[in-house]
Write a structure and sequence with these properties.
5-stranded antiparallel beta sheet, Thiol Ester Dehydrase, Chain A, 5 strands
């Protein structure tokens, strides 16, 4: 088992911009064909102030900002020994094209199952937009396979 003293460790805040091309590409990758994710006029006609990001989009911002493997590096875990276990989102406000989010990731928990054959790392990340509006909280589970 790892040093559980790392539970609670916070990583440096990161900033990530959101643009229409990112949203359109992400929407296409998840099979979302609603024009509100590609066309400003369609988004405004649907009542949005700008093109909205699909709900799971914030996780891609973490990846682009280089946050996904910080814990791996801290714990010296080879990436091929891990799988993305689960992802949770708690939304407070919408995310739109033109927003810049600031996020901060922390290690929330670490535990093992099956006699140490599986180790779990839980991280939490809060994201706020450029106006300080709380957009969402992400909770990520990474499973380390020890075989």
């Amino acid at each position: 088992m790892w040093d559980t003293a790392l539970i609670g460790k916070e990583y440096a805040p990161f900033d990530a911009g959101v643009d229409t091309a990112q949203i359109a590409a992400f929407a296409a990758s998840i099979g979302e064909d609603d024009p509100i994710y590609r066309e400003e006029a369609a988004a405004r006609a649907a009542g949005y102030p700008a093109i909205p990001a699909p709900l799971t989009f914030p996780f891609s911002l973490m990846m682009v900002a280089g946050q996904s493997f910080l814990v791996h590096a801290d714990l010296d875990i080879p990436i091929p020994k891990t799988v993305h276990g689960e992802q949770w989102f708690d939304f407070h406000n919408n995310l739109y094209a033109g927003d810049v989010v600031t996020g901060q990731q922390k290690i929330a928990d670490m535990f093992e199952k099956k006699g140490g054959a599986l180790q779990f790392i839980i991280t939490e990340t809060r994201m706020d937009n450029q106006d300080g509006v709380h957009i969402c909280d992400l909770r990520t589970s990474v499973v380390v396979l020890n075989n």
